[in-house]
Amino acid sequence: MNQADSAIIATLLKNEGFSPAASEEEAGIIMLNTCAVRENAVERIANYLQHLKGMKRRNPGLLVGLAGCVPQYRREELFAEYPVLDFLAGPDTYRDLPALIAEAASGCRRVSRFDFNPSETYDGVEPSREGSISAFVPVMRGCNNRCAFCVVPFTRGRERSHPFGSILREVRSLAGSGFREITLLGQNVNSYHDPETGMDFSGLLDAVSREAPGMRIRFTTSHPKDISSSLVEAMASRPNICRHIHLPVQSGSSRMLQRMNRGHSIEAYREKIGMIRELIPGISLSTDLIAGFCGESGEDHQQTLELMHAVRFDSAFMFYYSPRPGTLAARTMQDDVPEEVKKRRLQEIIDLQNTISAGLFREAVGSVVEVLAESVSRRSEEQLMGRTGTNRVVVFDRGRHRPGDLLRVMITGATSATLSGRAEEDC
Ligand code: SAM
Ligand code: SF4
């Protein structure tokens, strides 16, 4: 979401005549787009602001701003804590950034905008997407759920969906501009609802896949309680919708899910997984897991490990719980799992996931998979990295191939995070 928002901010600023600086030293404005979901993201911002303090001493004309969820959450108190800051903007106020920057540049230091705007979807602002073959297309903003641990509803406000017609126009334009892949984006894409046409997410997904039959279509994030058989059927019936669902479960214990206010049990989650795998055999599933939420016992933690063994997720984003002020958990529950226990449980989860991913990836050795080449590999100029439809990263020799090529790749090796192989005609 933040990457997509940064691309919207870039367009809004470019429209006002700003241009990207080649380096930090050359910049007249440095703005961080921030995430407040976990405490460690907030700590990283604090470290970077410390670094900017030094830069501002050398260049007093430099303007420093924070955008996104951290300022929305912490508001003006940030000015006192970080005197280096000149301006702050919440997630619904990016259209005001040029005005905020002008005010800050004219000498009014410490300017901010935080108003929630329930109709703001940045409709009509085409995100800046230079140098990529893959495009995020935000389809909704905000979240109406109230997971006990989560700050998002407080920082991004109520759900609102982008108009169906605008999404289709954007998809058409991307298809015509050489993009090869689209990811429909939202905190809970399954809640998509266009107030004008009544279109839901399965209808949107189907329409997008038909509008751009030559592109790969992905989406994230799906909430387990809202995933429907009609959505999975739409996926099954359209060949260009990728066979991958990111379905955050958070914990393997129904008791913890209830405390987390997730709105479903583990039995219901497993039923959904069964339905998905029956309708789309071979689909890959990934998840999010939190270790050490309030009241988590050793038995609850074991149930998370058991769930992982049973489902065999392809990959997972794994975190230990950090209380976020203002959330239901922070207000009403005790953060009673000691930090070393949280970290140990998280490590066990990570180790198990690595073992599971390595096993699944090893099983892929010897198969031929379809890979969309995305970019030059970070490790070597001579290699490209791409992804399978199931969202597995594949690295292979570049040869005469280029980002954007769709290739058949023979898998010859695997780690727990990456597959390696040879493009078929090079085999
Ligand atoms: N909307 C998505 C969903 O409900 O599945 C997830 C969005 S949330 C911004 C991304 C992930 O951050 C969550 O799935 C959760 O695992 C993690 N997360 C959120 N709040 C957290 C907290 N207080 N401590 C640790 N992890 C947290
Ligand atoms: Fe946060 Fe829950 Fe909304 Fe996801 S569904 S953004 S975890 S409140």
Short description:
With 427 residues, the chain is of the alpha/beta class.
Describe this structure in words.
There is one protein chain. Helix 7 (164-176) packs parallel to helix 8, helix 8 runs parallel beside helix 9 and helix 12 packs parallel to helix 14 (339-364). By secondary structure, this protein is an alpha/beta fold. Helix content is 37%, strand content 21%. The strands form five sheets. Strands 13-14-15-17-16 form a five-stranded mixed β-barrel. Strands 1-2-3-4 form a four-stranded parallel beta sheet, with helices on both faces. A three-stranded parallel beta sheet has the order 5-8-9, with helices on one face. It has helices spanning 2-15, 39-58, 69-74, 77-81, 97-105, 152-156, 164-176, 201-211, 229-237, 254-259, 266-279, 298-311, 328-332, 339-364, and strands at 29-34, 63-68, 87-89, 111-113, 134-138, 140-141, 160-161, 181-185, 216-220, 244-246, 284-291, 315-320, 368-376, 383-388, 393-397, 406-414, 418-423. It is built from 14 helices and 17 strands. The protein starts with a helix and ends with a strand. S-adenosylmethionine (SAM) binds at residues 37-38, 149-150, 152, 187-188, 221, 223, 248, 250, 288, 290, 319, 321-322, 324.
